[in-house]
Amino acid sequence: MLKGFGDAAVLEIIARHDGDTFRAVYTVRFGKMVYVLHVFQKKSKSGIATPKKELELIRKRLKLAERDHKQWSARGGQA
Fold this sequence. Notes:
This protein has 79 residues and is an alpha+beta fold. The chain is built from 1 helix and 3 strands. A 3-stranded antiparallel beta sheet has the order 1-2-3, covered by helices on one side.
């Protein structure tokens, strides 16, 4: 779980490859759908915290996912 998102079930996968660190952030809050909110390479060599800029982008995209899912549900789950 990625902290700071309340009950939004925002999850983070961290993968290390060839000395670099990559992160994928997604939410499973919406029943049958998984929304990938952000995928990025963490470049900071100090600390494990997710940079503030990345967290702000994740928050923005979570709001968009919430809106998209609400509209999708209002259409009866049709594309």
